[in-house]
Amino acid sequence: MYKVLIISYSFPRLFLPESIQAARCIKSIEKFGWNPVVLTVSEKTTIERIDPTLSVLLDKKLRIARTRSIEYRFLISITERFFPILLFLPDSKIGWYPFACRRAIAILKKGRFDLIYSRACYFTSNLVALRAKKKTGIPWVAHFSDPWIDNPYNDYGKIDGYVNRRFEKLVIENADALVFVTEEARQLVMGKYPKPLLSKSHVIPHCYDTKLFSNLKKKRGSKITFSYTGNFYGERSPVSLFMAMKNIHKNHPDIFDDIIIQIIGRVNERYRDLVSKMDLGKAVTIIDNVTYLKSLEYMVNSDVLISIEAPSESPGVFLPSKIADYLGSGNPILGIIPKEGASSRIICQAGGIVVEPGDTKGIENSIISFYQRYKEKRLNTFRSEKTMEEYHVLNTTERLAELFNKAIA
């Protein structure tokens, strides 16, 4: 049995998408000959939300080392107002770096480890692993859930852009292997580096765990239920969905009366007011943030699951982890997302429908199409079992273990 130190700021019970994905692969990695030890942040010092129900994702025998981080809300607020650049060097979790470095090196020197595996986001995790690799010489696999310097949501200035380009380059050059969750992200990030470096980069997507769904029984209602889970920020908005529902209300009132739209997550007052102004209260329900396990219940008890992304002129490189859970639920997906990109490709492969975020008429027609399938009891007839298998946790973890084996060969 080989031994791996997994460095990840995001880990249960922190209520972050990356926490769930990290725990998922770690729980299964032992099946493929790897004994994991985890280094993460102390729940007492993080400002992230804690979800107690995430404990079920962890093996009781898993060894977890938790270290403190300098995170004070008032300090972050002051920094955000007067020195925002400091929150992008490389991210807001840099206060974990000195404590995590010291603990990682101590753990590696004390035990007999074969490999270091770091998961980002947050990118601070990769910098901790970089330091540990340089101090110990142990092979290292670096994971990128999202692009770093190329991420369009990271609005870097001249100074922080320079520093982060330097950070990313050091990680890319020093890691023995690199993992991206989509081919699009891999090509975007690696395209600016010499071609020989591309050969050590690999794609292993987010995954779902069927065990989390096995005890959830679907409750079939009298209406078709569409559900969106997650938050809205930036240009990611439910407005086009609401406008499509308004058109259905006007043009197909009989169908409108048979539809439920559930928005599960943090929704600002502007969108709540819009539901009232558009007279959609009969069909649209907004449910505040729930635990991760509760969100899975909502997914299973829905008929169609909705993914919404911001409009984009370039192909999307992101794969939201919730799409993996959507696949695990077995329900079809309506993607209100750019037609070019990773998420669109996967949703279409799974038999879903993709519509551009601003295409109100297309969204309206898609909802009606799903409604007709629902009435004909053939909602899942287009589902691709091959795609489902590709994103199963055992398949993705086996690929990760194979990469670990190559990294230490």
How many strand units?
Answer: 13
Structural class by sheet pairing and helices = alpha/beta
| CATH level 1 class label of the largest domain | Alpha Beta
Cα-atom radius of gyration: 22 Å
Name given to the CATH architecture of the largest domain: 3-Layer(aba) Sandwich
The average pLDDT value, as a whole number, equals 92
Describe this structure in words.
It contains 16 helices and 13 strands. With 409 residues, the protein is an alpha/beta fold. The strands form two sheets. It has a seven-stranded parallel beta sheet, sandwiched between helices. The longest helix is centred in the middle third of the chain and has 17 residues, at 158-174. The model has no long low-confidence stretch (mean pLDDT 92).
Features:
409 residues; Rossmann fold; 13 strands; six-stranded parallel β-sheet; alpha/beta; single chain
Give the arrangement of secondary structure elements.
Blueprint: E1 2-7, H1 17-29, E2 34-41, E3 63-67, H2 73-82, H3 97-110, E4 115-120, H4 124-136, E5 140-144, H5 158-174, E6 177-180, H6 183-190, H7 195-198, E7 201-203, E8 224-229, H8 239-251, H9 253-256, E9 259-264, H10 269-277, E10 284-287, H11 292-300, E11 304-308, H12 321-329, E12 333-336, H13 342-349, E13 353-355, H14 360-375, H15 385-390, H16 393-408
Parallel strand pairs: 1-2, 1-4, 2-3, 4-5, 5-6, 6-7, 8-9, 8-11, 9-10, 11-12, 12-13
Helix pairs in contact: 1-16, 3-4, 4-5, 8-14
